[in-house]
Every structure is written in C-alpha cells, then in structure tokens.
Amino acid sequence: MSAPNHADILVIGAGASGAIISLVLAERGLKVVCLDQGGWTPPADHPHYAPDFQWQRQKEWNPEPATRQAAADYPVQSSHSHALMWNGIGGSTNIFGALWPRFRPSDFRKGVEHGMAPDWPLSYAELAPFYDASDALVGVSGLAGDAAMPPRPDYPCAPLPARNSGRAIAAGFDRLGWHWWPMPSAIVSENYQGRPACNGCGNCGSGCPRGSMAKMSLSVWPRALAAGVDLRAGARVEQIETGADGRATGAVYIDRATGARHRQTADIVVVAGNGIGSPRLLLLSESARFPHGLANGSDAVGRYLMHHTLVGATIWVEPRIDSHIGNTGAVISSEFAETDTARGFVNGFNFNVARGGPAGLSTVGAHSGHAAPWGSAHHAWFRRHFGHAFNAFAIGDDIPQADNRITLSESARDSDGLPAASLHYVPHANDRKMMEYGANRLRDLASAVGAFDFALNDYRDAAGTYRTPAWHLLGTCRMGSDPASSVTNKWHQAWEVANLFIIDGSSFPTGGVVNPTSTVCALALRAATNIADCFTELRRAGGGGGQAPSALR
Amino acid sequence: MSGHDDDLALFLNTLLPGDDLFPTATASGMLALARARMAADLQAPLTAALAAHGWGGRPAGDVVAGVEAAEPALFDAVRKLAYLTYYEQPAVIAAIRGLGFTYNDAPLPDGYPAERFNPATDMPRHGRGRWIAADAVVRVDLGALTGEQA
C-alpha cells in the first residue's frame, strides 16, 4: 500500500460541500487532498446534445443509482425510498435542479417550537453571512425583498425570466391570496464569472453542461484546482483510520482504475459524502476503539434520516404556456411554511412550482405519475395537454425519527467488495397529515388557475407504500449541543474525534421546507472558514474527549 | 407475439396509431430503435404477456388492454419505452412544430429564445408573506394535535 505525501486536510467527497471546503482551505494556503469515488462528468457526456436525451434520463442519466448502476455508484438497498444521487466530481450538482431557497429562522428552532425535533446549535443569523457568500461563490439568480424571508442583499444575478409559465402560476397564487415569489436558483441569468447565462434549454433535470447551473465541476472546482487542491477521482475510501490517541490519521482508499489500495494521511479529515455516504463510511470505519463505527458513541450515526415530505401534482391550464422552455424552478410559495397547529400538524411546507418538461417526459407522466393514454386517444391528449402543464410540489419538514436510518447491508456489496448502504424510511404520522393537507392545497391551486386537468402524485405504490424520490438525504450525522444525541458540535467537529469533521446534508438536525443545497453550501463555507482560522489549534488538539478545542468559536 | 418486426410494429402502432398530423409509431421510424431498447429485458416478458392474452387471435387493442390490466409494471415500462422513443423521432418533432411550438431536436446547443425578467410585468406586488424571528419562536399548543402524532 502506498502512502502519498501527508496533507493538512483530507476531504472525502467532491460534491457541493467537498468542493467548497477544498476551495476555502486551499485558498488559505493549506495542503488539501480530496478523494471521490466517482469521476469527472465532462460537458459533452451530458445528454443535452442528443435527441435521445429523455431516454438517457431513464438510463445512464437516471438519478437513482439502483437503476443507473454506474461503476462509481454503490448499492443502496431500500425498502421504501428511491435514493437519488450522483457519485462523481460535483456530486449531485451534476443532475440537480439548482433550486436555491434558504432555511428560515424558525427552522433552526423546532425544539423550542414543538419539541418533536431538536433545535439547531446555531441560528439563522449566524449562517446568514455564509448564505450570502455562498450565493456569490456559486452564482445565484433571484429577487430580494421577499416578505416571507428575512431581509437579504441583492442576489448576484437578476431573477431568471418569468416566462408565460411563471406568470400563469403566479396568477393562481394571487387568486388564492397566497404568497409567491420568483424561485431563487443557482442558475446564472446573466454571464457570471466566465459562465454563460442560462439559455432556457429546459433540461435542468440532467444538469447543465454549459455551466449556467452551479454544476460544481464547472463552477467551484476550477477555482479550487487553481488554488492547488489535489483532487483524485475514482478514489473510493474504504475506511478512515485512527491512531492510538483516537485522532483520525487519514484514510485508506481504493483506486478504482487499478484496484490498488493507498493510504492518505492528514492532520484533519473532513467527510462530505452526503446523507448516505457519510454515515456509511463512518460505520465502515469501526475499530476496537470505535466498535459501533467512528464517532458513533451516541448511536446517532445513520439515524434521523430525513427526505422532506413530498406530494406533487401536474396541473394543466387553458392558456398555452410553452412550459417545455426555461429553467425548472419557476415559483416558490411560503404560504404554509410556518407551523399552524390548527391544520392538525406541526411544521410546514413550501410549494416548489416547476415547468412542464419536454414532450416525451410529459407523456410518460414523469412528475404526475400518470402517463398519457395509448391508442386512439393518445394524440388528442397530446394536442390538448402539451405546453399547458406545470408541476407543483409541496415539500415539507419531516420529523426526524431514530428508526429512519442508514445501516450497512448484510448482503449487498459495492464493486470493490465494501458493504452497501441499507436505507429505511417511513414518514411520521405528522408527516402524513401534512402531506394530506398539502395535497388538498394543490387541488386548491388547480382550481385557482382554472385547470382543465389535474393529476396528483402522492408517491404511493399500488400497495399504498410511500416511495418518495429522495433527493434530500439529511440528518444522519446530525450536529447538536449534546454529545449524547448528536454526532458533531455546531462546527461539524465530531464529539469523539477532535480532528474529524462531517459537513454535508447529514449534518442537518431538521430539514426545513426547502431544497437543502444552498444550506449545505453555506454550512460548508462556514465550517471551512472556521477550520482554516483554527487550523493550528486543531492539528494539536487531543483525540477523543467530546469537547471542542477552545479555538473553535 | 413472435418477436418478429411485424408483431412489434403492430404492438407499437396500437399504442401510437397516429392521426392526420402525427405519424404512426412505425411511420415515425422508431421500430429498430425500439426493438434494440426492448431487447435487453422487456422483449421476452412482453411477448409472453401478449401471448397469454391471445395475441394474434383477438383484436390487438383488446390484447394490449388485457396486458395493461394484468401486468401494470411491465406495461408501464414498455409504454415508457415506446413514448420516449417515439417523441425523439424527427418526424414526430416535426409534428410538434406543426402545432406551432418552438421545439428543438435536443435541448442544446441552441436552447430557446432569450427573455429577461421584466419588473414591469413580473414583479410580485402582493406584499404577502411572513416569517418568525428566532427569538419570537415559542412553544405551540400541541393540544390541537390528535392521535399518534401528538
């Protein structure tokens, strides 16, 4: 086994969080090595340039590893959720929708609000400056002045065009007297830092090979590489190693091209593998000192998995709105974002309203779950429906439950022989009530826009089992104020391993009512800045013991 | 269905029969591509399912309806394959354009005509929306909740 040069920082995972952490620390002069089990996804490999782009979305560009079965993926056995992700440089930003709303202040205070979930150990106010800086880093388009959110500076880019589709959707919310706002998106509406403005191609679902979306391999990674990050693709980490003092010493990884094992040592190890990959790696890293997995003395590693509640609908309106054109996210509504127990549940949800999509995906019911009829009715259906649709999703804050968790599979293994992940997720009774309520509000929206057709998707299969498309993989290495119930402190530092940091969606104590990547990036920026500020103290800090070095602020 | 092109053509044309603007499935030029895509794991089960419902001896539409009812997962997969393959054919894209849509063969490189956010028409003017400051968050009345979630 080779042992390359010692690094200051080892980052495991080159997705949104890993990219930002690597950039910040390298630009502060630290020697950073980043490992990712996947490879680069060159722009020309995206399906956007071929007429079969919709078919590719079902196959090699399918967001579900279980269907895609790419060499870089690891199996995720799941009895319920469809776990969605992309393993490679840039992580799931290779295929995400780039919706970029923020958490709201009350999202950090659910312990106080109702006690069915914990408070975050930090506040919105502490995170806000890093939201702003992250927006500037990745390039975000939007409109300041939303009365449903705390004041914020102007966005780096002007809002994306509303188009006829956005105007029709907004009119529906106005008729209901409900809040709406242009969707903040990490898609540049104007040329920005060498990246071209979005040209409305309408295929956000397979990422953006132009770099108009914040695909990290085209936005943050070029700058990180220029700063000197040693980024190694095809490097699958099998274990984080620890020394006699309990500190992390580095990691052993498999070069997927050769099968050779290598050891990379570092003063500080950062895990950024997403809400499935990060707990999987910690569980794989068990040892005599950490018999239940690294940093898992609380037994919280892998637990409290959250996806958000989700119920959606495709809504067809009379005016032709050419909804195959434009970026995915059109409008957000925060009308129901705050808890109102008169509705019968705690927590809230937002509406994400998206455009309709291209012809093929429209006919297969990609969002509605209801395909167009076959036979003599098919073409009449198409003439009536295509170009008239939008998709609305009620995305809500699900209750973190200890039994919803990631464990190591006892039977399945990845292509390198490492145990696969096993996922269990069942929504809480509170979540089910919220989804029922959200479904009824979707019906209200359909009525308000004068819909001539409406198809609800509650993501239940024929047996009634909720099988959510789980883009959002949250909570499985949560931060907290109490080492007994969390994995890290507010700086993402493992309670039990002073030089181990876990920084990604797994860090979230609660999920909020929004897509999480903007918060992942803000947290990464905050955590990395702190590591850089405290690096000298951190490299000296003792191993276990549960308390953060005093240098951590 | 024997698996020959004639059978597959009839099956696809039953799903997508065409009209005065849209071509039939086979006239669209999709047959060979559909066969290739189906070959991996769908051809054999589809053939068996159609045979079990009387393919060749009953009207094709009746047989397809029987498969749809009896084997929804298989039918959904085959229908998805058929629809996606059909809608990427140049003749079908031409028909979509014939409806008056600006519709590209592929999303890129062209994209669609640029627009800008127009504050005059697109700015929200409703003034709605609220948020709760962190220090204003207080314990809600959980007595309003019922059943197992309380």
Q: Can you characterise this structure?
A:
The complex is a heterodimer of chains A (553) and B (150). With 553 residues, chain A is an alpha/beta fold. Chain A is built from 13 helices and 18 strands. In chain A, strands 1, 2, 6, 7, 8, 9 and 18 form a seven-stranded mixed beta sheet that branches. Chain A has a six-stranded antiparallel beta sheet with strand order 5-11-12-13-10-16, with helices on one face. A three-stranded mixed beta sheet of chain A has the order 3-15-14, covered by helices on one side. In chain A, strand 8 and strand 9 form a beta hairpin. In chain A, helix 1 packs parallel to helix 12 and helix 6 (163-176) crosses helix 11. Chain B has a domain at 5-98. Chain B has seven helices and no strands. Classes of the chains: A alpha/beta (553), B mainly alpha (150).
Q: Which features would summarize this protein structure in a list?
A:
heterodimer; A: 553 residues; FAD/NAD(P)-binding domain; 7-stranded mixed beta sheet; 6-stranded antiparallel beta sheet; 13 helices; 18% strand; globular; B: 150 residues; mainly alpha; 46% helix
Itemize the secondary structure elements and their pairings.
The complex is a heterodimer of chains A (553) and B (150).
Chain A: E1 7-12, H1 16-27, E2 32-35, H2 53-58, H3 65-68, E3 76-78, E4 82-83, H4 110-113, H5 124-138, H6 163-176, E5 181-182, H7 221-226, E6 230-232, E7 235-242, E8 248-255, E9 261-271, H8 274-284, E10 309-316, E11 329-333, E12 349-355, H9 359-363, H10 378-385, E13 389-396, E14 405-413, E15 419-424, H11 429-448, E16 453-457, E17 469-470, E18 500-502, H12 517-533, H13 535-540
Parallel strand pairs in A: 1-2, 1-9, 2-6, 3-15, 4-17, 9-18
Antiparallel strand pairs in A: 5-11, 7-8, 8-9, 10-13, 10-16, 11-12, 12-13, 14-15
Helix pairs in contact in A: 1-12, 5-12, 6-11
Chain B: H1 5-15, H2 31-39, H3 43-52, H4 60-70, H5 72-86, H6 90-98, H7 119-122
Helix pairs in contact in B: 2-5, 4-5
